[in-house]
């Protein structure tokens, strides 16, 4: 009996994670009439809606969550849409970023703000976080804050890059990614 080749569902780990964290149980497939009225090609034809989509989203998240820390936090911060969860993941990442800032005391809230700045998470009022505002808030010179931002961003890039490579490999091994 000939074994059928399974076609990967996603082009990259990034696409798989983006789908998994953006998936909503309220997604529904287009009706046949809607497809006909739209004309031309519609969608990727992968049928990832309903229970099938939920299963694939859950599988991808399971792969992410089975990774060693801080990799799942970095991936979740990049793809999660829920603001409260984003802030929680960013707070958990603080402990992995603080050693990169060097010796001395560092305000955890300031480091949290730098993590949020890196991932584009807005403040409680919905405004973009600005370095000048952080300088004023934590009574630091612009040079000091810029050095801390650079060190934090360098560490976060390392974490995120390693996490992306690891999830790509895991999803390829699982047959979900090309």
Low-pLDDT residue intervals, each spanning 5 or more residues: none
Could you tell me the radius of gyration in angstroms?
A: 20 Å
> Which oligomeric state applies?
single chain
Percent of sequence in beta strands? under 5%
Determine the number of helices (DSSP H or I, runs of at least 4 residues).
Answer: 8
Distance between the termini: 25 Å
Residue share in helix: 55-70%
Please give a structural write-up.
The structure is a single chain. The protein is mainly α. The protein has a domain at 76-158. Helices cover 61% and strands 0% of the residues. Helix 1 crosses helix 3, helix 4 packs across helix 8 and helix 5 packs across helix 6 (108-119). The chain starts with 12 loop residues before the first helix and ends in a 5-residue tail after the last helix. The model has no long low-confidence stretch (mean pLDDT 82).
Short description:
This protein is an all-alpha fold and 178 residues long. The protein has eight helices and no strands.
List keywords for this structure.
single chain, 178 residues, mainly alpha, 8 helices, 0% strand, elongated
């Amino acid at each position: 009996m000939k074994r059928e080749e399974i076609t990967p569902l996603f082009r990259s780990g990034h696409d798989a994670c983006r789908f998994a964290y953006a998936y909503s149980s309220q997604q529904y497939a287009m009706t046949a009439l809607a497809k006909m009225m739209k004309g031309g090609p519609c969608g990727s034809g992968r049928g990832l809606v309903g229970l099938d989509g939920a299963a694939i989203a859950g599988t991808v998240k399971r792969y992410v969550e089975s990774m060693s820390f801080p990799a799942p936090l970095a991936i979740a911060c990049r793809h999660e849409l829920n603001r409260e969860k984003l802030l929680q993941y960013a707070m958990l990442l603080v402990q992995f970023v603080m050693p990169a800032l060097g010796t001395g005391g560092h305000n955890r809230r300031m480091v949290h703000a730098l993590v949020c700045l890196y991932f584009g998470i807005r403040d409680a009022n919905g405004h973009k976080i600005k370095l000048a505002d952080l300088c004023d808030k934590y009574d630091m010179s612009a040079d000091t804050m810029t050095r801390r931002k650079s060190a934090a961003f360098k560490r976060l890039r390392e974490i995120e890059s390693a996490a992306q490579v690891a999830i790509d490999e895991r999803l390829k091994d699982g047959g979900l990614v090309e």
